Each structure stands twice: as structure tokens, then as C-alpha cells.
Amino acid sequence: MAQCSSFSSRLYSYGTNGGKDPSMDPAYLATLSTQCPQSGASQPVAMDPVTPNTFDTNYYANVAANRGLLASDQALLADNSTAAQVLGYTTSPGTFQTDFASAMVAMGAIGVLTGNQGTIRTNCRVVG
């Protein structure tokens, strides 16, 4: 899920001309505009509107179809390497599951800082 405020610039004030993000699927853009009116509503929107409560590869299918909710999602197609990975995951759910499991194991091996070794953020977007 993402709050409307996290992506509303793609709907109403994208780029120097302040229009709609041209990289977005027009039908998806219209749907998002009804869910997040320009008046500033900040409700949560599913990152995957097709299967929002299922752990599957539909997120990648959405990105491949220019329906990435966040700009960072859609940017995955801008690089040949990440675009190939996105497209690969849409056609090979097993590869995604294997890669995801490996990534979770690797993340679990990251050392946790304790005591005064690290910083606890009260706002994840702000360091310090």
C-alpha cells in the first residue's frame, strides 16, 4: 500500500509542465485519479490492484504494463538489467520465489546494531 501523497505528483504535477506522468498507462492513471483526487485525499492505494493480498508476481506484471504505482517502481524499466529482471519475474514466478527467499536469508544475516552503535529513526525518511 502507498498513500496518495507518495505518488500524486505523477497524477497532477509531473515534470516541468506539471501534467500527468507520460510513462503511466492512461487507464491506470485515470483510475488512480479517482482514488486520489487532486483535493489532497491521502488514502492508501494498493501497489498491486489486481491481487493486493496475494504474494505473487503480479506487481512485476503491473510494472511491465506501465502500471507501477510509485515512480521508483516504474523506473525499474529504465535500466536494461532491472527491466530484464522485471520481465523475467512476470514469466517465471518460481525464479521470483527462489530469489526472494535468498534475499530474505541474506537480509537475516545482516548484523543488527545495538546500544549506541546505531540510530533509531522516528521518521524513516529522515537521517539524524
TrEMBL record:
GO molecular function: heme binding; lactoperoxidase activity; metal ion binding
Disulfide bonds: 4-36
Source species, domain of life: Eukaryota
InterPro entries to which the protein is assigned, alphabetical: Haem_peroxidase (IPR002016), Haem_peroxidase_sf (IPR010255), Peroxidase_pln (IPR000823)
Residues binding Ca(2+), per UniProt: 48, 51, 56
Record key words, sorted: Calcium, Disulfide bond, Heme, Hydrogen peroxide, Iron, Metal-binding, Oxidoreductase, Peroxidase, Pyrrolidone carboxylic acid
Cofactor stoichiometry and binding remark: Binds 2 calcium ions per subunit.
Signal peptide residue numbers: none
Coiled coil regions in record: none
Domain Plant heme peroxidase family profile span(s) in chain numbering: 1-128
Biological processes per GO annotation: hydrogen peroxide catabolic process; response to oxidative stress
Requisite cofactors: Ca(2+); heme b
Catalysed conversion reaction: 2 a phenolic donor + H2O2 = 2 a phenolic radical donor + 2 H2O
Record bears the keyword Iron: yes
Pfam families: peroxidase (PF00141)
PANTHER family: PEROXIDASE, PTHR31517
Family to which this protein belongs: Belongs to the peroxidase family.
Protein name: Plant heme peroxidase family profile domain-containing protein
Lineage, highest ranks first: Eukaryota, Viridiplantae, Streptophyta, Embryophyta, Tracheophyta
